[in-house]
Write a structure and sequence with these properties.
The chain is globular and about 60 Å long. The model is unreliable at 1-19, 114-152 and 331-353 (pLDDT under 50). Helix 9 (292-313) packs antiparallel against helix 10. A hairpin with a 7-residue loop joins strand 12 and strand 13. It is built from ten helices and 14 strands. By secondary structure, the chain is α/β, with parallel strands linked by helices. The longest helix has 22 residues, at 292-313. The protein has one domain (3-373).
């Protein structure tokens, strides 16, 4: 797997730990972008592999400014590895991952941000029932063409439906699949909720297991419940400590499933907060502590180049209403001084009638101009 790291600005006694800190990026744009472009009738730069390689190099360069070793995980081995684990499993597989391992039995969940509050409301299936949140589901017509978004059933209803389908076929034991298992809190919550429906989880299939230093590992949490956890890849490596694991789509503004979902959902709109200032909280969500402004600048430059290239492939700019996920400016982000906010803010109604036909790239360039004038970020 390719790596791109830098010692950055680490000094003193923490140097060794800083250099051997691992920041893991799972690649998924090679899966998501072609689906988006086909559904929208758009073209992508060719050859696509070279274009994405250039973008990923810019992403690693930006994130390495923090001083961590950047580890890129290609989608192909994760996808094939999860598929192999699923094929070798004798149990029905309920998937929570629509990207690497879509299955007939799905739970559509996501990490969400409350639109009218200033706090992360947690994992979609984490803790109390009132914090369960569905992912917005892409709708297609009988020809497989994209026709818009609709909120999924509530998570509790989804689980009840899946349990009913399983019992009707004489099944009461399952395997659960997810692309990334981090703390294990979300997956164990799902296991316990299925158990309340009379469905026992025997195995968890994960693309990546990411263990946080000093925390109870996902393997330990699953073992306590009598569940076997099998993963394609496990981080951190023996030599380092894990800072974070992030999907690359979260840093590409407007990409399918980018960032954290805005809740409550608005019919016809899939909105989210990318992991870039001033859209999302790059410190808390992406583990960027020291170089948040410089990294946000670099990521915005990457996004300008990204969407400019896609626009050139189509001989016109990409409009905001052509995005799978409309980017919003996040809660408590500093209002930029040189002009009004150019994309909707979270404390306004999610209405895009004034900007939906506008091109995305000029908005991103304007944000970049503002960031170039700033010396620090206020949170």
């Amino acid at each position: 797997m390719p790596t791109d790291g830098s010692k950055g600005r680490a000094h003193g006694a923490d140097l060794w730990r800083h250099v051997y800190s691992e920041y893991v990026i799972s690649e998924d744009l090679d899966i998501l972008l072609p689906e988006w472009a086909e559904a929208r009738g758009l073209k992508l730069p060719e050859p696509l592999g070279e274009f994405l390689s250039e973008m990923r190099h810019m992403l690693r360069q930006a994130l390495s400014l923090e001083g961590h070793a950047i580890i890129s995980v290609p989608s192909a081995p994760v996808r094939s590895g999860m598929e192999e684990l699923a094929q070798n499993c004798w149990l029905p597989v309920v998937s929570m991952d629509p990207v690497y391992l879509p299955r007939p039995l799905m739970l559509h969940v996501t990490r969400v941000i409350g639109h009218y509050v200033d706090a992360d409301v947690g994992w979609a299936t984490y803790k109390s029932a009132d914090r369960l949140r569905p992912r917005v589901v892409r709708q297609i017509d009988e020809h497989g063409k994209f026709i818009g978004f609709a909120p999924a059933m509530r998570i509790v209803d989804q689980m009840a439906h899946v349990a009913k389908v399983l019992k009707a076929s004489g099944q009461n034991r399952i395997a659960i699949a997810d692309d990334v298992v981090f703390s294990g809190e979300c997956i164990t919550d799902v296991i316990e909720r299925f158990r309340a429906h009379g469905i026992e989880t025997m195995q968890v299939i994960a693309g990546i297991v990411a263990n946080e230093e000093g925390q109870v590992s996902a393997h330990e949490r699953c073992k306590e419940l009598g569940v076997q956890l099998d993963a394609v890849l496990v981080f951190p490596s023996a030599a380092g400590r894990l800072i974070d694991e992030i999907c690359e789509r979260d840093f590409f503004i407007g990409a399918p499933m980018c960032g954290r979902t805005v809740y409550p959902h608005v019919p016809g709109i899939d909105a989210g907060y990318p992991y870039i200032f001033p859209f999302g909280n790059i410190r808390t969500w992406a583990g960027i502590r020291q170089e948040d402004l410089e990294i946000s600048r670099a990521l915005l430059k990457m996004n300008v180049k990204f969407w400019t290239a896609i626009g050139q492939a189509n001989s016109r700019g990409i409009r905001i209403d052509e995005l799978d996920r409309v980017p919003l400016q996040g809660p408590k982000m500093q209002v930029l001084k040189s002009g009004e906010m150019r994309l909707p803010a979270c404390n306004s109604a999610i209405s895009h009638t004034k900007i939906e036909s506008e091109e995305l790239t000029p908005h991103l360039r304007a944000y970049l101009e503002d960031l170039e004038k700033m010396k620090t970020l206020a949170w």
